[in-house]
Specification:
Two copies of one chain form a homodimer. Chain A is an alpha+beta fold. Chain A has a single domain (2-158), classed as Winged helix-like DNA-binding domain superfamily/Winged helix DNA-binding domain (Arc Repressor Mutant, subunit A, Orthogonal Bundle), CATH 1.10.10. Helix content of chain A is 43%, strand content 17%. The first copy, chain A, is built from six helices and five strands, in the order ααααββββαβα. Chain A has helices at 14-32, 38-50, 56-65, 72-84, 126-138, 155-158, and strands spanning 88-91, 96-99, 110-114, 120-122, 142-153. In chain A, the strands form two sheets. Chain A has a three-stranded mixed sheet. In chain A, strands 1-2 form a two-stranded antiparallel ribbon. The first copy, chain A, starts with 13 loop residues before the first helix and ends in a 9-residue tail after the last helix. β5 of chain A pairs antiparallel with β5 of chain B. The structure holds zinc ion (4 copies). One zinc ion (ZN) binds next to α6 of chain B. One zinc ion binds at residues 8, 114, 116-117, 119, 154, 156-157 of chain A. Chain A binds a DNA duplex (30 and 30 nucleotides) through residues 35, 37, 39-40, 55-57, 68-69, 71-74, 76-77, 81, 95.
Chain lengths: 167, 167
DNA sequence: AATCGCCATGTTATACTATAACAAACCGAA
DNA sequence: TTCGGTTTGTTATAGTATAACATGGCGATT
């Protein structure tokens, strides 16, 4: 546990990062008496391998290649399970799914999404949540769920020529 | 201009609210030399009439009823125009569109969405933006666009029996 | 070990959301 | 009036997600 979130750093140890996420997932599912079946584990692995938001249909070919059925319900069921366990999050503005770097406890999620390199990192949403809570409570609104997805350019991509900060 | 944003108040003057939005839209388009054609105006009217986020395909029948072609491109083109002019916003987490209460100038948008009555109100996102900017700048991330969509229960719906704050 | 029931997966079909591509009509400026 | 760009019509298709029911595997209980 307590893995590092590599953020937008391109040169972190990908393999370690992924293995660590999978191992944490196994531990958590065992603790919770949930079944991390081969399909579910494979989907989680694929998401971490790519290390960027992945569309459901992008994942299907790899499922087929691994010998599983690859009709849409297969992948959506796996994604549903992984989301319920907090192992992946859905990014609504991209129709895509990404691994959660700290699935041990449920939490509000928010993302910075780089339009240059397509990577996304999970934000600490506490400050955003405080701001939202304040606005909401003025209206007597009771928050149940927050979607916070910010598109822009990461530090690396800002220094690449040709990248502009358009969404 | 300077219309009131009725927020979650159920008993505001709907007709006035809608007429005002349409009249503002006409003014803005004239100023900008953009053409608020009958289809575009009708789509905007339908969105304001319902006064809640509307899916593209929910709007199509009314287009057909008004004698227009009602194939999907018709509605998406109108919505694209209205978004470009800032007259409507898209809510990604709902795949839906809603009228903007202050389209005079471009702005970041954010929404509180009531899961009880399906209404949505546009937030003042300045405080949220400050919080996001701070988090982003720590990572050297340059923000281009923010999606902020908060689901919960409005004050009215909290007092209705049977409503819970689940998203 | 056998049984039972639940959960997971397979399979087919379909709903829902959005865009591509090209033709025809319209509209406004020169 | 003519021209050229914009808007709309039309057909087709891409992309995202779920319904519904059958089948199979796994694990708890006996
Ligand atoms: Zn997370
Ligand atoms: Zn980047
Ligand atoms: Zn707005
Ligand atoms: Zn409400």
């Amino acid at each position: 546990m307590n893995r590092e979130d590599p953020g937008f750093e391109a040169n972190h140890n990908h393999d370690h990062c992924m293995e660590s996420a999978l191992s944490t997932a196994k531990d958590l599912c065992r603790e919770r008496k949930q079944r991390l079946t081969p399909i579910r584990e494979l989907v989680l692995k694929l998401i971490w391998e790519n290390h960027q938001p992945m569309g459901a249909y992008e994942l299907l070919p790899a499922l087929a290649a691994a010998g599983f059925n690859s009709a849409p319900p297969t992948i959506y069921r796996a994604l549903e399970f992984l989301q319920e366990q907090g192992l992946v999050h859905r990014i609504a503005s991209l129709n895509a799914f990404i691994g959660c770097p700290h699935p041990e406890s449920p939490h509000r999620s928010g993302f910075l999404i780089c339009s240059g390199c397509q990577r996304a990192v999970e934000l600490d949403t506490a400050p955003v949540h405080r701001a939202l809570s304040e606005s909401a409570s003025e209206l007597g609104f009771k928050i149940a769920h927050e979607t916070v997805e910010v598109v822009g350019l990461c530090a690396d991509c800002q220094s690449q020529p040709g990248e502009t900060a358009d969404a």
